[in-house]
Amino acid sequence: METLSLLAGGMSSALAPYHFLIMIIGLAMGVVAGALPGISFVNAMAMALPFTYMMSPIASMAFLGGIYAGGVFGGSISSILINIPGTPASLPACWDGYPMTRQGKSGKALTIAIAASATGGIASALLLTFAAPPFAKFALKFDQPEFFAATFLGLVSIIAVAKSAPWISFLSLFLGMVIGSVGVDPLYGVPRLTFGIAEAQSGINFVVVMIGLFALGEVVEMLVASDGAMKVKEHIRFERPRFTEYWALRGSVVRGTAIGSLIGMIPGAGATVGAVIAYGVEKQASPRGAEFGTGVPEGLTAPEAAKNATTGAAMIPLLTLGIPGSAATAIMLAALVLKGITPGPMLFSTQPDLVYAIFSSMLLANIFMIVAGVIIARGFSHFMKVPPAILSGFIVVLSVLGAYGVRNNIFDVYVCMIFGVIGFAMKRYNFPAAPLVLGVILGPLAERYFLTSLANYDNNVWIFVERPISATILGGALAFVLWAMSPVLLKRIRRNKTAAIS
Amino acid sequence: MVFHQRHWIRAVIAELIGIGTIVLGRLIVDDPQMVESMARGLATPMTWPRLMLSGAGLCAIGWAIEEGWKAFHFVQAPSAAEEAMEFGDVGFEEESAAPPLLPIALGLGLALAYAFVIPWLGFTLATVIFLLLWFLIGGIRRPVKLLSVTLIGTGVLLFVFVKVALMPLDRGTGVFGEFTIALFRLLGIY
Questions:
Q1: Residue A398: closest CA among chain B residues belongs to which residue?
Q2: In which region does residue A150 sit, left (phi positive, over 0), alpha (psi from -120 to 50) or beta (all else)?
Q3: Tens of pLDDT along A320-338?
């Protein structure tokens, strides 16, 4: 009952004209950015960050939440229409969505994608609304070792993203954590890895690194793109969805939503992993699994539902533990921190109005995404005409403003630009950037929790496995690593057995 | 030949990163002995960075051995497309046409130069010059389009960030600073 009354309060706050308008603008920006290949919704959120400096906390979260929900879906528009995923998470939409377009069913494919994404997103927002408060209450029992264990789970979850290349992925993660340890150490106040640069003592801000790697690293190649070359040949006509047709896909929607919600809660996994796993599971579960890849609606529905189902779920660790599980939620964390708000279990008791306004905004964003998705998909061909050079030029300028605005410090701009060059090189030579970012974000948190755990518990290194909750989370981390690595390990064992027999 | 060469290059990069971690491990703090003496328990200020650098070093060794083994056994390197898919990245559609290096290098250099001249020229002037050059490299040649997009775009950004968001953007030094202030007065945002 209390939850419902708080939700009603949050809804009235989210529906206040200013907040609602901001959310709609964010939604539209997110769908457009997601749909344009080369600009991901994370880029758009990083670009949008400086605009939140002048907003209230509720407005800024509504704005970023709108971009997040819209952007995760938006990538599917270009996947379905031109076979180029606007975001990595939209990759599975190419596999069955684009074949549908080639069969002249683009309108139907887009309708299915929008409906499935909205369903997954709404279910996930409801999960966030009703699961986060009890989890936050439970998290009040957490002390430093539990927070360290949760952060550790987030760090090792990177194995799910790149299990086929563990060395390079973990190298990237460790390098990210080294970058995260630049600056004054949290316990003794000693500057580390600063090389005499005074500005470096305040550390390398993860937002600055993210803007550099994701925004700048991506746009340089846009500079040399010939033109908006990707033309949408077909005039998009949205078929009115027949309820029976959508009802027949209910199994795929439920499976996709469940997988997305589960994956979304794991720090580090995110929409891409959720969508790809949902596609794989659906291929096994669907009676038409063998036909996947030829334009089967189930193959489009499940990953679409899954990727938007990760959005609300990913905010659970952010709001309850203060641990961002993805680049997008890290930007939301930055927006909150810049306003002096620290997410964590206490936030639910100190600022419930803000928390429920965030929940309501996510819910509304996923509902209104249907309208924004239809309008922007119809006008997609117009967006593709903006010359990439113009788009990329302004992205660079907004990157500079975004980096500068974090601490009003030109040093951050230099760092951002250097990471832009590094990001470009990493992209060009296929060195994974996602683990590095995760390391920069979670590394300092892990260090702080690790050191304070030792300081508070008489330097007892076994404290992490002596406390039941901490030990359970660490056990979960180990189980997760084994589960993620099991296909690779089994493959090797089978190969060795075959070699031994032959 | 090309395939295993790619593995060798990666193995060399991995080794360089490994050496880098050893060098960095010795430069974490200015005075390691003094810092060590500060320790009140198991962990010193150098413990965490050392652990992370050790982890990075180990992974670099693992990666170097893996790449060296592949190069030695002539394993075909994955194509850019396969690797991009592996890491859940986008852009693998354009595998066949690698973008030309010169404009990209110019673009990167320009972006770096833009950031580094802001304190001297100020945000306004630096942005106008940067956008003009960027658009020119990007193939936009029509003067009207070039100037209108640059000036209107910069004007809108100044209005939003200086007038509305009150962001203290760099105005530049000396004559450039005076120019920026005069311009802000003219635009009514000072």
A1: B157
A2: alpha
A3: 888 887 778 888 988 898 8
Between CA A185 and CA A32 the distance in angstroms is 41
How do residues A439-458 score in pLDDT, each as one tens digit? 888 888 889 889 889 888 88
Complex ipTM tops 0.90:
no
Phi, psi of A191 (to 5 degrees): -70, 135
Question: From the list A37, A447, A459, which residue is nearest B90 (CB)?
Answer: A37
End-to-end CA distance of chain A: 67
CB pairs under 8 A between A and B: 213
Strand-pairing partners, residue A183, are: A192
Query: CB burial class (10 A; 0-12, 13-18, 19+) of residue A125?
Result: buried
Task: Give the whole-angstrom CA distance, residue A132 versus residue B40.
Answer: 38
Facing residue for B138 by CB, picked from A185, A389, A450 = A389
Which chain A residues touch B66 with a CB distance below 8 Å?
167
Tokens of B41: 């328990």
Among chain A residues, CA nearest to B106: A220
Residue of B nearest to A85 (CA): B90
Contact A188 B44 (CB under 8 A): yes
> CB within 8 A of A347, min separation 6: which ones?
A136, A319, A341, A354, A355
- Domain spans in chain A, listed from the N-terminal domain onward: 2-140+149-230+240-456, 465-502
Q: State the burial class of residue B14 (Cβ atoms within 10 Å of its Cβ: 0-12, 13-18, 19+).
A: buried
